[in-house]
């Protein structure tokens, strides 16, 4: 749809061009024209940031120059105030892509631009002077490093690790502290201060031992051949590589990238943030000369450095999480998305893009192939492949010829232990004992963090809720707090019920903390490690924990999502899913799909060596298709059943959705505003004859969040473009409110 739409203005900044077209990081659609002062004519280029007088008060506002024009009447136009960047922050290709994002995700071009350019790049690209801190070793020696308070010591450690002066922000990021410790050290004279323009130094590279490519097995070879065809003819095609865990998908990507590199082109490999382990990174670094890694823990300086390196064309492979889809490669040859079913590829703030769809568009614009890989592809991707739009490639066997581990559902409805609130039922307990006594290791998966996820009052029967959110509080025993998992709210666990006043508060349900206690009590001779977002706060703690498990110092690893994916530990002979029902019963169209994916992924952690392994899944719904198909390792069977259901429900992948979420501090105002907005859209749909259904408005599933009341409605159509057209047609006519804000979530993944 958007491929061939020419821009309404010229792209080149010619000497005689008078006007720059500027977009802003605000939720409005259009570009604004500004006069280019004489001195910058012919120099300003699209992709540079500019300061412009904006609005009635002519407040200076930063915007992005996206092109140039020669309007007939320039009399009323204002002039640019300043050019911020020395060079364009992105090329024409990326400008086109961000414009597409604005159209596809119903936000403005400026909002899209603002997201894809990392903060670090914006900070460094400007010409302003910056303050840098470095260690005055002599002053430090006088005070004695060991005498410093913990936070200040962390600052010193961060600077040591960086091996170069850093800005305060960067220090705070990597030392995980506020500005206090930096100022404290500065005042003691331990930190030296210099002011200069931001510059980048070359990255310090640790030499990684080079490894040879493996000899592919016949299945892998066939897959590679199919990928090489569009690569060689340099045409766009999406290939869905559906291969069970351990079938050698990554090795196929690597050898496809080998071909790309031989053409002097670059590849982008997207992986879920959680898989950006040293293990994964090393795998690429040992095969290619220059690999850039983009993960969310990079400091601004590190990110800027990687960005510069990539845009200089000196990187062969970019490996990164979601936002790496915007890596500024110069000659992109291939994009790979590993574990394409992962929800972290969707951004949950505006623009709420999905990296898979952006990658598809980028690959299409560049005329290059896109590979999607997964053991459990999303229904969206699988349906496209089945319809022949994308090419389906299947890897049926594990490389090692080891079978997938047997998975059994354990019905806990009649297990007295589970009924009385224990997390570890009889069958899993016996299996854990057998596994550890045999020298094996165990992974226990539970999707709930905290100690007890439900605080409730036995007297009035009500859950004790967060005052800001419509959510019950979770007890965190280790911190002696009752906490809300969506806002910052935390209190001493109440002894009496805030509603009825009775001293009858009880804890209910099992979180990872309580499971850890239970494991420790039942298996005191073995070491257990918990991994969830509470224990893994510090930088590097994830790696340390996995290292301990790999070395066998820990026998039982328990945790949330964090341990479900990608880990490859040959000694794991048992995987236990403590509660398969937590996701299954969520009010979400993808609940069954997620449950299936989760069991399949978790199961992939077991039986990775000749020692074998098994998987036990505790559930109260053993007859649910998602659980039955998952225990049978039957992806295709599951898809056939589920797709039928989706068709009947008029849900994705057959229908496209856009969800509008509205929130405000006064419930009635939100209701009223939702209704008037929905009315405008309904009317526009009728008048324009666009086949869009509008569902709602209704209270959002979490009706109160962070003090805000929330309502939502959905637009549904068989073509994504239909929704875009409708939205565009009413964009300027939508009601406005100063008390109610709204966001639009296109292809929402969370209900
Ligand atoms: P997937 O990405 O499908 O889970 P991997 O690519 O991680 O699978 O492969 C699983 C394991 O098999 C890895 O340890 C990998 O090094 C190994 N492997 C992959 N392909 C081959 C091959 N052709 N020959 C030998 N070992 C292989
Ligand atoms: Zn809350």
UniProtKB/TrEMBL annotation:
The EC number(s) this enzyme carries: 5.6.2.4
Entry note: cofactor: Binds 2 zinc ions per subunit.
Record-annotated Helicase C-terminal domain positions: 492-678
One Gene Ontology CC term in the entry: primosome complex
EC supergroup of this enzyme: isomerase
InterPro entries: DEAD/DEAH_box_helicase_dom, Helicase_ATP-bd, Helicase_C-like, P-loop_NTPase, PriA, PriA_3primeBD, PriA_3primeBD_sf, PriA_C
Catalyzed reactions per annotation: Couples ATP hydrolysis with the unwinding of duplex DNA by translocating in the 3'-5' direction; ATP + H2O = ADP + phosphate + H(+)
Sequence positions that bind Zn(2+) 2: 466, 469, 484, 487
Keywords recorded for this protein, A-Z: ATP-binding, DNA replication, DNA-binding, Helicase, Hydrolase, Isomerase, Metal-binding, Nucleotide-binding, Primosome, Zinc
Role played: Initiates the restart of stalled replication forks, which reloads the replicative helicase on sites other than the origin of replication. Recognizes and binds to abandoned replication forks and remodels them to uncover a helicase loading site. Promotes assembly of the primosome at these replication forks.
Protein's recorded name: Replication restart protein PriA
Keyword set includes Ligase: no
Cofactors named for this entry: Zn(2+)
Top-level taxon: Bacteria
Record text on subunit structure and interactions: Component of the replication restart primosome.
Molecular function as annotated in GO: 3'-5' DNA helicase activity; ATP binding; ATP hydrolysis activity; DNA binding; zinc ion binding
């Amino acid at each position: 749809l958007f491929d061939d739409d020419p821009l309404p203005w010229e792209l080149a900044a010619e000497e005689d061009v008078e006007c720059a077209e500027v977009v802003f990081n605000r939720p409005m659609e259009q570009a604004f024209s500004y006069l280019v002062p004489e001195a910058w004519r012919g120099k300003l280029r699209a992709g540079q940031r500019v300061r412009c007088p904006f609005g009635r008060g002519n407040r200076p506002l930063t915007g992005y120059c996206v092109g140039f024009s020669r309007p007939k009447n320039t009399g009323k136009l204002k002039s640019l105030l300043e050019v911020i960047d020395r060079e364009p922050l992105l090329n024409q290709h990326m400008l086109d892509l961000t414009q597409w994002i604005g159209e596809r995700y119903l936000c403005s071009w400026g909002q899209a631009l603002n997201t894809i350019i990392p903060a670090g790049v914006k900070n460094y690209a400007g010409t302003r002077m910056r303050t840098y801190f470095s260690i005055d070793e002599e002053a430090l020696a006088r005070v004695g490093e060991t005498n410093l308070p913990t936070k200040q010591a962390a600052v010193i450690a961060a600077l040591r690790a960086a091996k170069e002066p850093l800005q305060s922000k960067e220090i705070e990021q990597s030392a995980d502290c506020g500005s206090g410790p930096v100022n404290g050290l500065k005042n003691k004279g331990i930190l030296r201060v210099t002011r200069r323009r931001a510059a980048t130094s070359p990255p310090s590279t640790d030499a990684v031992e080079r490894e040879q490519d493996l000899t592919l097995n016949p299945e892998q070879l066939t897959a590679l051949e199919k990928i090489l065809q569009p690569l060689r003819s340099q045409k766009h095609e999406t290939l869905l590589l559906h291969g069970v865990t351990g079938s050698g998908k990554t090795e196929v990507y690597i050898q496809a990238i080998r071909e790309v590199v031989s053409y002097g082109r670059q590849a982008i490999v997207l992986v879920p943030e959680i898989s950006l382990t040293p293990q994964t990174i090393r795998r690429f670094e040992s095969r290619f000369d220059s690999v850039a890694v983009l993960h969310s823990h990079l400091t601004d300086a590190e990110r800027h450095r990687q960005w510069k390196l990539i845009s200089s064309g000196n990187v062969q492979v970019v490996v990164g999480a979601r936002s790496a889809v915007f890596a500024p490669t110069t000659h992109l040859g291939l994009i790979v998305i590993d574990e394409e079913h992962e929800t972290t590829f969707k951004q949950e703030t505006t623009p709420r893009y999905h990296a898979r769809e952006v990658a598809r568009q980028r690959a299409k614009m560049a005329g290059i192939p896109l590979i999607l890989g997964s053991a459990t592809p999303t229904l969206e991707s699988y349906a496209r492949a089945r319809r022949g739009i994308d090419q389906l490639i299947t890897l049926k066997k594990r490389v090692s010829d080891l079978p997938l581990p047997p998975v059994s559902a354990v019905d806990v409805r009649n297990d007295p232990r589970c009924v009385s609130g224990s997390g570890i039922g009889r069958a899993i307990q016996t299996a854990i004992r057998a596994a550890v006594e045999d020298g094996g290791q165990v992974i226990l998966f539970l999707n709930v963090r905290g100690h007890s996820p439900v605080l409730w009052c036995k007297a009035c029967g009500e859950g004790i809720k967060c005052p800001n959110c419509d959510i019950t509080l979770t007890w965190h025993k280790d911190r002696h707090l009752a906490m809300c998992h969506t806002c910052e709210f935390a209190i001493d666990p109440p002894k009496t019920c805030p509603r009825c006043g009775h001293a009858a508060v009880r804890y209910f349900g099992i979180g990872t903390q309580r499971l850890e206690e239970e494991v420790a009590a039942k298996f005191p001779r073995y070491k257990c490690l918990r991994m969830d977002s509470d224990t893994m706060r510090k930088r590097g703690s994830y790696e340390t924990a996995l290292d301990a498990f790999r070395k066998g110092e820990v026998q039982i690893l328990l945790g949330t999502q964090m341990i479900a994916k990608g880990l490859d530990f040959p000694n794991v002979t048992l995987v236990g899913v403590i509660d398969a029902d937590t996701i299954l019963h969520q009010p979400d169209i993808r609940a069954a799909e997620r449950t299936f994916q989760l069991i399949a992924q978790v199961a992939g952690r077991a039986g990775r060596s000749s020692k074998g392994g098994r998987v036990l899944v505790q559930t109260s719904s053993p007859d649910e298709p998602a659980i039955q198909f998952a225990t049978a390792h039957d992806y295709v069977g599951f898809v056939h059943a589920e797709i039928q259901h989706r068709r009947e429900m008029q849900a994705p992948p057959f229908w496209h959705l856009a969800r509008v979420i509205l929130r405000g501090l006064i419930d009635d105002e939100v209701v009223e505003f939702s209704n008037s907005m929905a009315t405008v859209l309904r009317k526009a749909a009728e008048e324009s004859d666009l086949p869009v259904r509008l569902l709602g408005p209704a209270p959002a599933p979490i009706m109160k969040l962070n003090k805000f009341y929330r309502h939502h409605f959905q637009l549904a159509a068989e073509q994504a473009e239909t929704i875009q057209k409708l939205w565009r047609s009413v964009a300027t006519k939508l009601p406005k409110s100063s008390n109610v804000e709204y966001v639009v979530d296109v292809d929402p993944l969370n209900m």
